Amino acid sequence: MNDNDTRTHQMVIRSREFMTQSIDDFVEGGAARQLYAQLQAGIIDFEQKGAAHGTGLSDERQGTKSRGEARDALQDRLDLIRGVAKVIGIEDKFPRPLKDNDDSLLETADIYAAHALPLKAQFIAHEMPADFLEDLAEEKAALQTAITDQANAAGDHISAREEKNNARDNCVAIVRNLTPLIKVRYANNPGKLAEWTAASHIERAPRRAKTADPPPPATSGQ
Questions:
Q1: Would you say residue 180 has pLDDT above 50?
Q2: Domain positions in the chain
Q3: Which alpha helices (H) appear in the chain, and where do they start and end?
Q4: Residues 139-161: pLDDT tens digits?
């Protein structure tokens, strides 16, 4: 949960505790008790969806890391092949991929494989491992898999975030619906009303301290 979610969660927990301690003051089977039951269930849902969102965020970050590692491994393989091609004198057949472009990197891997295959013996004679084309294919496949996994994780994260937000907003709506009923029940009890107001209030984010302006540069005397 982010800071806003945390402050909202703290608010609905305080509101639930207020109702738990005061439930005997409300009509058996009445609207306030029904909302209290909804709030209890809503908080559980909010917490579960918050945990799922956290997992989704973690998975997306891991997917980004894995994609970067697979990209680097394929790029390193292409650099080795291009280096040998330069020594052989066929560098033009092995162009550099576009920078920071995974589609170009994958396309370049196919070009390298096609051009290196008939020249495999020459590459091996220049110290490339015998299975360098198999390694190239594996590293290309690894990047393709990492791209797919990252996209799936990002989609799951977006979905989990939306579900978490909906669960949070549902809890807030329940608390807001409880407020008029509590005002009626405690119309003659200002202490209880003040307690509810404090419980159902979402704290504001702390303000950042202002940075003092730097002093003006000193000027030399005339």
A1: yes
A2: 3-21+28-199
A3: 3-22, 31-88, 102-116, 120-125, 132-185, 190-199
A4: 999 999 999 999 999 999 999 99
Query: Within 10 A of 221 (CB to CB), how many other CB atoms are there?
Result: 4
Asked if residues 47 and 9 have their Cβ atoms less than 8 Å apart, the reply is yes
Q: How many other CB atoms are found less than 10 A from the CB of residue 133?
A: 18
The pLDDT value recorded for residue 3 is 85
DSSP state of 218: P
Token pair listed for 200: 């159902």
Q: How far apart are CA 130 and CA 124, in angstroms?
A: 6
CA angle 39, 9, 53 (to 5 degrees): 100
Q: Any idea which residue has 């650099």 for tokens?
A: 79
| pTM listed for this prediction | 0.74
Q: How far apart are the C-alpha atoms of 213 and 139, rounded to whole Å?
A: 52
At residue 221 the predicted structure's pLDDT band, cuts being 50, 70 and 90, is very low
How confident is the model at residue 99, as a pLDDT? 86
With CA atoms as reference, report the closest residue to 180 among 41, 70, 31. 31
Residues 6+ apart with CB under 8 A from 157: 53, 56, 57, 59, 60
Identify the pLDDT of residue 167.
96
Tokens of 175: 């608390």
Return the H-helix or E-strand segment holding 209. none
The pair of three-digit structure tokens given for residue 147, joined into one six-digit string: 């791209």
